[in-house]
Description:
Layout: H1 2-19, E1 28-35, E2 40-46, E3 57-60, H2 62-69, E4 80-82, E5 87-92, E6 97-103, E7 116-124, E8 128-134, E9 140-142, E10 148-150, H3 156-161, H4 164-172, E11 175-181, E12 188-189, H5 196-199, H6 203-210, H7 217-220, H8 235-248
Antiparallel strand pairs: 1-2, 1-5, 2-3, 3-4, 5-6, 6-7, 7-8, 8-11, 9-10, 11-12
Amino acid sequence: MKRFLLVLLFTVCIYYTDVFSVFNSSNFVKGDITLANGKVINCYIEYHLAGVMQNGVTYINEPEYQLLKTGAKVKKKFFHKLKPKDVKEIQLDNGRRFKTIKYSDLTAVKLATIPRFYIFEIVEEGKISVFKKYSNNFGISIVSGGEAQAMVDEMEGVRESISFEEKIEASNRKFEIIIHVEGDKMVKSLSNIVIDKYISDNQEVYEKYKSGKYGSINKVLSQLFKPASFNDSHPLYADDFIRMIKDYN
């Protein structure tokens, strides 16, 4: 009898987790999804981790969101999923914008280098457009050359003492800069280009860049192995670079 009850309880748990979602309302932000066919969906979009949408989008409609806000469980069938190739652009009510981009990671190996669709956050659009490709690993930041840079935690015990919210905040600060130059067919990682040739036609910006008026990015971007990810080790480089591109555009 005891064994039967355990089996029954296990079956009920499996059914429950398979039918109902574990999401809560704080995981979602109101916004618009523009599909590849031009249709616009006004809905609530999963957004609790900066790079959560890079490989696909989960959204729910107004009635299910309001139900979720009450603390009730909502069936998984009401959580709709879209692949990056099905999405053109996403506009969140908090001001963040995202766009589907075809990108090949040239720092990766084998199949990872094959171009595929991602949804990247839009930072700046113009003659040079800038996007963020987030790295949502909680403990490691990938840098150029295949090296790995450990986070601040020197001991595994320190990692365990960090709250989930702190891990998310740290993860949201780790991203790779992706750029697209008007007229080019492909987008590129900032770590794989010589930025000088793209901005030298704007003499004022180029001279400010070379003279260090945009912080120390002129030294960073002239390195043979430039950082692929921006994180706590060099938090200002990305801001300075984006400020320079805004001036250029």
